[in-house]
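Q: Convert this sequence to structure tokens.
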Amino acid sequence: MGGRAKGNTMREWALVLGASSGFGGATSLALAKVGFNILGVHLDRRATLPNVERIVHEIEGLGRRAEFFNMNAADEEKRRDMLGRTEQMFQEEGGGQVCVLLHSLAFGTLKPYIAEKPEESLTRAQLEMTLDVMAHSLVYWVQELVARRLMGRGGRIYAMTSAGATRIFPTYGAVSAAKAALESHIRQLAFELAPLGITVNAIRAGVTDTPSSRKIPGYEQMAELARVRNPMGRQTTPADVAAAIAVLCQGGTHWMTGNVIGVDGGEDVMA
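A:
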């Protein structure tokens, strides 16, 4: 076939980790628009649940189904329970396939390695948590999807990285390490999943205004610099990135794997 069929049946699903805001929220909507049902994993408290409800309502308004799970995506027991419930749902409905996985988990510690006051330095637990959530969890989700045969030939896996994988920003050390590890996992998974017909790529967005990016100390200055240096004359938006991912999840991308794909309006090429 040379690529996955377009998402045009009620049995084709996209699994989005971090589905309630930022890149995950925008991509959930973009994938619903091109025909996918959405399995959304998110971690929200009562104050932000209305936004989750809005996204679910918009997906259903597009004629797609939305099954959202409010849980810690890095929790092994919860991951297995969620995928077990998904597997059971597919069996009861006579079939189903996770055609797309988007890893867009942005939960890490923003502290310097070395601080004037030792108690303000990054701790071992914080470093390990950041890498586990933002990098290693991708491997665990993919392992279980493949083992349960929920994703097969034609599957598309994408994970959100950033320029911080290769560059230094103050207090960004743990996240930078996680992004570098994530890109390494992408290469290894691309190699191991190629015989199964599943492709794996990282998406490197430009500096984007998202709830997680606003937590980075000095974000406003970073965003202003991105706007100034971007040859498109503006900052990247979640919708820009979501639109690109939606295109990449349709047919004809079966020969693209193991890459870091820039979706930044040319921001990264500027000195």
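Residues 124-147 form the longest helix (24 residues).
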